[in-house]
Design brief:
Helices cover about 45% and strands about 20% of the residues. The chain has helices at about 15-30, 40-45, 80-90, 105-115, 140-160, 175-185, 200-210, 225-240, 260-275, 295-300, 310-315; strands at about 5-10, 35, 50, 95-100, 120-125, 165-170, 190, 215-220, 240-245, 280-285, 290-295. Helix 1 links the parallel strand 1 (about 5-10) and strand 2. The longest helix has 22 residues, at about 140-160. The chain is elongated. Bound molecules: adenosine-5'-triphosphate. Adenosine-5'-triphosphate binds next to helix 4. Its EC number is 2.7.1.11. This is ATP-dependent 6-phosphofructokinase. InterPro entries: ATP_PFK (IPR022953), ATP_PFK_prok-type (IPR012003), PFKA_ATP_prok (IPR012828), Phosphofructokinase_CS (IPR015912), Phosphofructokinase_dom (IPR000023), PKF_sf (IPR035966). Pfam families: PFK (PF00365).
Length: about 325
């Protein structure tokens, strides 16, 4: 029997609950003792643990967000803060911690490893910006939310012969904008990974309206520009009526998609198998539909690039 704690950290994402449920239920089935930690690394330092039974994770599979709550903590970045967290784990005899979060949370996970805690990472972020996994938790749900939002905007833009400029999340990674753009058949996609020229885009939009189009849609990842400014500039360059919409936090909400539920159930289950196999200090993901794992050093050294083939698909379909 091992004692295993689980926490969620950084920005929440749809599917975190499903991942927690999978880790806890599989852990209990395999005879381990499971502990929830409230509010991420802050909870580790504040000694905010509770022992979990199977029923503690009932009714959460289909809920967005994280019932363990998430938080950010500057104190945990310091050796002193980390020592308090480690002392709290040690006094309970907890040797294993599962961290669900993004890149920053993975840095926190690695800090725990350096203190001798056997730690795992699950990629909990909607941005799809973690190397060595094809997907991150919540990305697929967010893609569906953004696709629905673009569809709603298309209806009204078409009635008024307007250009809609829609800002999606993604500071360094344009995957949400790119894939939502493909799934919505939009006219232009601006992402941080690919340089763009607003003069060219304005000319293409104008040509489209001259051919008789009733509306156009431009998706911009937040790391590639601000929707209000892009809309203003496109209006000045093309003379078309433009409207900006910043989707904001609605992108992080909603019931997790079937894909996210299955993906997180598989990863959560695999964490416990790895513990039973004596493997630790790794972050899990999915590559080519297999649940895989890598050391945190490998993840940090990995390059997070957009799928160039995917971008080509968009360019050839527009
Ligand atoms: P998101 O993708 O939503 O931004 P994230 O996990 O990257 O999620 P961060 O705010 O970067 O979010 O990190 C979450 C927490 O992880 C931080 O508040 C901090 O407690 C911990 N953390 C981040 N960087 C480090 C570090 N270098 N060392 C130790 N802990 C860290």
């Amino acid at each position: 029997m091992k004692k295993i704690a689980i926490l969620t950290s950084g920005g929440d994402s749809q599917g975190m609950n499903s991942a927690i449920r999978a880790v806890v239920r599989t852990g209990l089935h395999h005879g381990h003792e499971m502990y929830g930690v409230r509010r991420g690394f802050k909870g580790l330092m504040n000694d905010d643990f509770f022992k979990m039974a199977s029923r503690d994770v009932s009714d959460i599979l289909y809920r967005g967000g994280t019932f363990l709550q998430s938080a950010r903590s500057e104190t945990f970045k310091t050796p002193e803060g980390q020592q308090v967290a480690v002392d709290n784990l040690k006094k309970r005899g907890i040797d294993y911690v599962v961290v669900i979060g993004g890149d920053g949370s993975y840095r926190g996970a690695q800090a725990l490893i350096k203190h001798g805690i056997k730690t795992f990472g699950l990629p909990g972020t909607i941005d799809n910006d973690i190397p060595l996994t094809d997907y991150t938790i919540g990305f697929d749900t967010t893609l569906n939310v953004v696709t629905d939002a673009i569809g709603n905007l298309r209806d009204t833009m078409s009635s008024h012969e307007r250009v809609s400029v829609i800002e999606a999340m993604g500071r360094h990674c344009g995957d949400i904008a790119l894939q939502a753009g493909i799934s919505s058949g939009v006219d232009a996609i601006l992402i941080p990974e690919v340089p763009y020229n607003l003069n060219d885009i304005a000319a293409e939009l104008k040509a489209g309206f001259d051919r008789g189009k009733s509306h156009s849609i431009v998706v911009v990842a937040e790391g590639a520009g601000n929707a209000e400014e892009v809309a203003k500039e496109l209006k000045a360059l093309s003379g078309l009526d433009t409207r900006a919409t910043i989707l904001g936090h609605i992108q992080r909400g909603g019931t997790p998609s079937a894909f996210d539920r299955v993906f997180t159930s598989r990863m959560g289950h695999r964490v416990i198998e790895l513990i039973d196999e004596g493997i630790d200090g790794v972050a899990l993901g999915m590559e080519k539909n297999e649940i895989t794992y890598h050391t945190f050093d490998e993840i940090f050294a990995g390059e997070n690039t957009i799928n160039k083939k995917m971008y080509q698909v968009f360019m050839d379909l527009v």
